[in-house]
Design goal:
The structure is a homodimer of 317-residue chains. With 317 residues, chain A is of the alpha/beta class. Chain A has three domains: 1-40, no CATH class; 42-252, Rossmann fold; 266-316, no CATH class. Chain A is built from 13 helices and seven strands. The first copy, chain A, has helices at 2-10, 14-26, 29-38, 58-71, 90-102, 119-135, 150-156, 175-179, 198-212, 235-251, 254-282, 285-296, 302-316, and strands at residues 46-52, 76-82, 108-114, 140-145, 161-166, 187-190, 224-226. Chain A is globular, with a radius of gyration of 22 Å. At the A-B interface, helix 3, helix 7, helix 8, helix 11 and helix 12 of A face helix 3, helix 7, helix 8, helix 11 and helix 12 of B. Chains A, B: Keywords: Chaperone, GTP-binding, Hydrolase, Nucleotide-binding.
C-alpha cells in the first residue's frame, strides 16, 4: 500500500499525501515499507524550522512566508508541530484558520502534528512526515513548533535553517535566552515590530549575538529582520534572509555535513528503540516482572537490572 | 570509592554528598557502582516537583517551602534543574542567592543541575541525583525546574507530588495550558497573589480543572493555593496541600504504583542507551561509515540501515 501511495503522492494526489503522512506517523512495519519506498526521493527540499514563544505571531508569520514563496512560484508545505497536550487543541484551531488563506492552493499543503505522548515519538513522527513532504516534491518544508521549550528546540534544530521569532516587550528579557534557542537561530525575526520597544529588543539580540562567542555557527552571522506579519511588512526580507542562509550552507559544503549529522542522530534513535523492542520481545514476562519487583523492593538497582536483562537476551541469540 | 562516599554521605558529610552527586551525574561505570551501593537506602523521601513558567517566582516559593519544612524539623534537599543553555547561567545565580538564606543549615541542601547537552542526559542525571539525596536521608527532595517546556514537564512528573506555579496576569491565558502541564499538577500555587487579576487566574484554573475530564488523576482534586512567596503568605497552606497529596497517595496504595511505573520507565531508558552503546561497540567502524554513506546518498533508509546494523551484531553474539 505504501509504495502505491508514494507514487500517487508524488503525482500530486493530496489525499494520497495525507494518507501517507498518517501511515508514517504510526511508526509501524507498514510505515517502514512506505519510508523505504519514498526515501530515494528525499534530500531536495529546503527544511525551514520556525520556533519562538507563544504569542509571538509565529503562525501568521509562517502563513505569510508561505504566501510569499508561493508568489515566487515555489511549492510550500507546513508542518505545525504541537508538543503540548491535546487538551489545548491549538494546532487544530490554527490549522483551520490558515486553511482559509492557503487551503485552495495546490502548491501549498498544511498539516498539524499533535503530541504523541512522548517527545521521542513526536520527534520521530515529525522527521518521517518531513521525509514524505520532501519526497512529494515540495520545494520548501516549514516545520513550525508551538512554544519554545527544549522539545520544540530539539525538533526545530533538525531543519536546515532555523528561524527564531521574538516580539518586543514580552517581559524584561529576550524569551529565547531562557529557552536556550539563541544558539540554534540562523535568522532572527522580531515580529510585531510596530510595537513599542522594538529597538530595545533588536539591541538586546545584537548584544546577545556578540556576547555569545565571537564566532558564529558555521561562519554565519544570524541577521535580525523586523516584521509585522499582520500587514506583511518585511516578509520578503525575512524570506530572503532564510534563502541566503540556505545558499550559505550549500556554498560552503555545510548542507551535506548537517544532513549527515542529522541522519546519524536519526539512525541512532531508531536503533535504540528497535533494540529495546527486540529485547522486550525476548524477555520472558515472568523474568520481566521479577526484575521489576526486585527494583521496587530496592534489592536491585535499575542499572544492574538492565545488565541482567541484556545478558539474558544476548545469550539467547 | 562510591561505597565509601555513600557511607559518609549517609552519616551527614556534605562534601561526600556533593562528590557523590557529581559522581552519579557522570553516568559512567563508577557512577553505577555508587548507585548500586546507595539504591537499597532509597525509597523513603517525598519527592516534590515544582514547575511553572519563568517569572512566576518558583525559586522564592521553593526557598520558602524549604524554610517552612525545616521549621517543622524535616530535612529538605533542593535540586534546581535548568535544561536551558549554560549561556543563561540562571541556575547558578539563583543558587547563590538562596545559599544565603538556607546555606548555613545542616538539615538543608541545595544543588543546581545544568543542561547536559541532551534531554535524556539531564533526565537521567536528575533521577540519579534524586536517588543520592533520598539515600542520604532527606525527608523531602524538591526538584525545581526552570521554565515550563515539555522537558521540564517530563522531569517534574517523575516526582510523587507535582506543584504547578502560576501568577496573575501573565498574558491572557494560563501559561500551563500551552505547556501541557495542567494534567500533571497535584497542587496549583497561584503565586504573587497580591497582584491584580488573581481572582481571574484562580477562576480560569478552576474552570480548566472542571473542563478537563470530570474525574481527576488518582481520584485527587488538585487544590489551588494563593501565595505571596516574598512575604511568606500562605506558604504553610501550600506545604500542607503537598503533604496531603502524599498522604492521599499512601492511603490509596498509589505511591507504590507510581514508583513502580517510574522505575519501569527508568529501567527501559537505561536498557535503550546500554543496548545502543553495545551495538556501536560491536559494529566495525568501516561498516558504520558505509551504512551512513548509503543513507546520505539516499540508497538506504534509516530503518533499513538500523535493521542491518542490528542483524550484524546479533549474529556476532
Amino acid at each position: 500500500m505504501g509504495v502505491e501511495l508514494v507514487a500517487k503522492a508524488r503525482a500530486g494526489n493530496r489525499r494520497a499525501l495525507a494518507r501517507l503522512i498518517t501511515l508514517v506517523e504510526a511508526g509501524d512495519a507498514q510505515a517502514q515499507t512506505a519510508l523505504a519506498a519514498l526515501y530515494p526521493y528525499t534530500g531536495h527540499a529546503h527544511i525551514v524550522g520556525v520556533t519562538g514563544a507563544p504569542g509571538t505571531g509565529k503562525s501568521t508569520l509562517v502563513t505569510q512566508l508561505a504566501l510569499h514563496w508561493r508568489s515566487l512560484g515555489r511549492t510550500v508545505a507546513v508542518l505545525a508541530v504541537d508538543p503540548t497536550s491535546p487538551f489545548s487543541g491549538g494546532a487544530i484551531l490554527g490549522d483551520r484558520i490558515r486553511m482559509q488563506s492557503l487551503g485552495g492552493d495546490s502548491g501549498c499543503y498544511i498539516r498539524s502534528m499533535a503530541s504523541r505522548g512522548s517527545l521521542g515519538g513526536l520527534s520521530r513522527a515529525t522527521g518521517d512526515a518531513v521525509k514524505v513532504l520532501d519526497a512529494a516534491g515540495f520545494d520548501i518544508v516549514i516545520v513550525e513548533t508551538v512554544g519554545a521549550g527544549q522539545a520544540e528546540v530539539e525538533i526545530a534544530r533538525e531543519a536546515h535553517s532555523v528561524v527564531v521569532v521574538e516580539v518586543p516587550g514580552m517581559g524584561d528579557d529576550i524569551q529565547a535566552i531562557k529557552a536556550g534557542i539563541l544558539e540554534i537561530a540562523d535568522v532572527f525575526v522580531v515580529n510585531k515590530a510596530d510595537r513599542e520597544g522594538v529597538e530595545r529588543t533588536v539591541r538586546q539580540l545584537q548584544m546577545m549575538l556578540h556576547l555569545g562567542s565571537g564566532e558564529h555557527r558555521d561562519g554565519w552571522e544570524p541577521p535580525i529582520v523586523q516584521t509585522v506579519s499582520n500587514t506583511g511588512k518585511n516578509i520578503a526580507e525575512a524570506a530572503a534572509a532564510v534563502e541566503r542562509h540556505f545558499e550559505h550552507l550549500k556554498n560552503n559544503n555545510l548542507l551535506e555535513l548537517r544532513e549527515r549529522e542529522r541522519i546519524e542522530r536519526e539512525w541512532k534513535m531508531i536503533m535504540r528503540e528497535s533494540l529495546l523492542r527486540q529485547l522486550l520481545q525476548r524477555l520472558e514476562p515472568q523474568q520481566y516482572e521479577q526484575l521489576l519487583n526486585h527494583m521496587a523492593e530496592r534489592q536491585l538497582d535499575p542499572y544492574a537490572a538492565a545488565k541482567q536483562a541484556i545478558e539474558t537476551v544476548l545469550e539467547l541469540s
